[in-house]
Amino acid sequence: MKMMKDLDKLNTPYYLCDESLLKNNLEILNYVQEQSGAKIILALKGFAMWGTFPLIKKYLKGCTSSGLHEALLAREEFAKDDNSLEVHTYSPAFKDEDIEEIAKISDHIVFNSPNQLFKFKDRVKKINSHVSLSLRINPEHSSSPKEIYNPCGIYSRLGTTLANFDEEVLKYIDGLNFHALCEQDVGALEEVLAAFEEKFSKYFKNLKYINFGGGHHITKKGYDVEKLIKIIKEFRAKYDVEVYLEPGEAVGWETGVLVSSVLDTMHNGMDLAILDTSAEAHMPDTLAMPYRAEIRDSAKAGEKKYTYRLGGNTCLAGDIMGDYSFDEPLKVGDKIIFEDQIHYTFVKNTTFNGIKLPSLVILREDKTLDVVKEFGYEDYKNRLS
Ligand SMILES: *Cc1c(COP(=O)(O)O)cnc(C)c1O
């Protein structure tokens, strides 16, 4: 068994997820569950390091998955001793060849459109009479700060608008879902909820639950947890429904790092360093969103004495993490630690350019280090032919 002091000996790059930090988040989420009566499930899209599921499933009721593969992972790795696991499966569009297997392993199936619901409802119910059906709504209230993460943007394919709602669906569904937020505070939820209620509350009468989706930044410092609890309690009392939340980011938020090494330094108009990781392959949101990842013991360009442009070890010119300054010049072999790289990172990784995938390492609560996954050439080759 590896111990904390062995961290220096691990080959980089690796993601290090700290279970003590994860547990802090889970305790906040559990407090919300207990105080508000809402059920919270993990969105696998944002965080799916299943080596940590034995801890997570002590707190959360289940998982929300976006199709067959995530649903299978939930069934296999999130199973609970008391059989209470809930697997919710939503997909922008389900496929004929997947739907029967999805029906077998799901507790809730959430359709994106009345079309999809009418197409699949009978097959799904025939296979699993207990499955609960829901429809995803687009409340048409845009509040996401980034268009790429705005499910309610113009021409959005995600969810059913009021104009596209067909009252016939009410015969078959037990609930409604919406997902409209991204890294947002409770004020944004209030606004979306107001838009959602204004348009759709006339249909709540016979519903059992409303799923408020994800994007709630519940575990971020400063999030008004008490207000969230109040909103949920009032909503539950007003409409006599259960409420679900399905955060991904809030579960993995600030629970660990991506550790890389400097492979070379050079000067071409400015100081440059090449790392054994990649923005493109290992931190895609830094380019897609885009945002600047924090690096431990560094500052913005020019603030400390030595400024470098950090780049990845691929041949993509734009594979650049950004410009950072340090107290000392960087040397080959120095560790560069990117903060908060556990959500929406390894779930999106690629083997682009043959670059090695970072290992997955868990720092357990008892301070032992578990290298749960290392990747090699086979992972690259197997996907290509
Ligand atoms: C992505 C997603 C979530 C989780 O969102 P976070 O921002 O990670 O909390 C929940 N529900 C649906 C439908 C999603 O697409």
Task: Please give a handful of descriptors for the protein shown.
single chain; 385 residues; alpha/beta; Lyase, Ornithine Decarboxylase, Chain A, domain 1; TIM Barrel; 2 domains; ten-stranded mixed beta sheet; eight-stranded parallel barrel; 11 helices; globular; binds pyridoxal-5'-phosphate
Give the helices and strands, then pairings:
Layout: E1 2-3, E2 14-18, H1 19-36, E3 39-43, H2 53-56, E4 62-65, H3 68-77, E5 86-90, H4 96-105, E6 108-111, H5 114-127, E7 132-137, E8 175-178, H6 186-200, E9 209-211, H7 225-239, E10 242-245, H8 249-252, E11 256-267, E12 271-275, H9 279-282, H10 284-288, E13 299-300, E14 306-311, E15 320-326, E16 335-339, E17 359-363, E18 368-373, H11 377-381
Parallel strand pairs: 2-17, 3-4, 3-10, 4-5, 5-6, 6-7, 7-8, 8-9, 9-10, 12-14
Antiparallel strand pairs: 1-18, 2-11, 11-12, 11-16, 13-15, 14-15, 17-18
Helix pairs in contact: 1-7, 3-4, 4-5
Residues 43, 45-46, 64, 90, 179, 182, 213-215, 246-250 line the site of pyridoxal-5'-phosphate (PLP).
In short:
This protein has helices spanning 19-36, 53-56, 68-77, 96-105, 114-127, 186-200, 225-239, 249-252, 279-282, 284-288, 377-381; strands at residues 2-3, 14-18, 39-43, 62-65, 86-90, 108-111, 132-137, 175-178, 209-211, 242-245, 256-267, 271-275, 299-300, 306-311, 320-326, 335-339, 359-363, 368-373. By secondary structure, the chain is an alpha/beta fold.
Verbal overview:
The strands form 2 sheets. Strands 1, 2, 11, 12, 13, 14, 15, 16, 17 and 18 form a 10-stranded mixed beta sheet that branches. An 8-stranded parallel barrel has the order 3-4-5-6-7-8-9-10, surrounded by 5 helices. Strand 3, helix 2 and strand 4 form a beta-alpha-beta unit. The chain is 27% helix and 23% strand. Helix 3 (68-77) packs parallel to helix 4 (96-105) and helix 4 crosses helix 5 (114-127). The protein is globular, with a radius of gyration of 22 Å. The protein has 385 residues and is α/β, with parallel strands linked by helices. It has 11 helices and 18 strands. The two termini are 36 Å apart. It folds into 2 domains: 5-16 and 256-341 and 349-381, Lyase, Ornithine Decarboxylase, Chain A, domain 1; 37-252, Alanine racemase (TIM Barrel). It has helices at 19-36, 53-56, 68-77, 96-105, 114-127, 186-200, 225-239, 249-252, 279-282, 284-288, 377-381; strands spanning 2-3, 14-18, 39-43, 62-65, 86-90, 108-111, 132-137, 175-178, 209-211, 242-245, 256-267, 271-275, 299-300, 306-311, 320-326, 335-339, 359-363, 368-373. It binds pyridoxal-5'-phosphate. Pyridoxal-5'-phosphate (PLP) binds at residues 43, 45-46, 64, 90, 179, 182, 213-215, 246-250.
